[in-house]
Amino acid sequence: FDPRHYLGTHCYRFPKTGPHRLRFLLESVKDLRETLKKKGSTLVVRKGKPEDVIRDLITQLDSVSAVAFHEEVREI
């Protein structure tokens, strides 16, 4: 979870994530974790800036051969 997603928008500082969206997100992540667990896998969930969290995870795992990501489109 990137803390920057819970700040205000660039224009007018409207909240990016309200209480309903946050609840949906948390329930979705919980459901995904439970589904993966039933299939013998797991889900790693972290809080922080992705550029820091991913770097730390790669260092901890020491066997990463590829990383895929997407970048949020920013408003101009």
Automatic annotation (TrEMBL):
InterPro entries: Crypto/Photolyase_N_sf (IPR036155), Cryptochrome/DNA_photolyase_1 (IPR002081), DNA_photolyase_N (IPR006050), Rossmann-like_a/b/a_fold (IPR014729). One of its GO terms (biological process) is photoreactive repair. One of its GO terms (molecular function) is deoxyribodipyrimidine photo-lyase activity. Pfam families: DNA_photolyase (PF00875). Keywords: Chromophore. SUPFAM superfamilies: Cryptochrome/photolyase, N-terminal domain. Residues 1-76 form the Photolyase/cryptochrome alpha/beta domain. PANTHER family: CRYPTOCHROME, CRYPTOCHROME DASH. This is CRYD protein. It comes from Baryphthengus martii (Rufous motmot).
